[in-house]
Design brief:
104 residues, alpha+beta, two-stranded antiparallel sheet, three-stranded antiparallel sheet
């Protein structure tokens, strides 16, 4: 049997206080992803177990930053057939993205 006592415990932990764009470094104070931002994961599975080293989790503040980061990711990973990006895009973000693409 384990004898238990109720004790007050003070605990420290890392908590998110802001988001920083992984492209332009813009910072916005928020505990959850700010409105208009997008989060996604990228990576490939061509290194076997070491493929986990190719995984990146990214937060971007705008459609402009998304396009710039996509271009960078493509250039860095175009030789990997299994490279992919996973994430959720809101309809408003997609609208901004399509508007920028049409302007190109």
């Amino acid at each position: 049997m384990i004898k238990q006592e109720l004790k007050e415990v003070i605990k420290k932990e890392l908590v998110g206080v802001s988001y920083v764009c992984d492209n332009c470094k813009k910072e916005e104070e928020s505990k959850k992803i700010p409105e208009g931002w997008v989060s996604f994961m990228s990576g490939h599975d061509e290194w076997g177990n070491d493929s986990c080293d190719s995984v990146e989790y990214l937060d971007l503040c705008s459609a402009e930053c998304y396009i710039e980061k996509l271009n960078e990711l493509y250039n860095d990973n175009k030789d990997y057939k299994t490279f992919e990006i996973k994430g959720d895009l809101t309809i408003l973000f997609i609208k901004k993205l399509l508007t920028l693409i049409k302007e190109l």
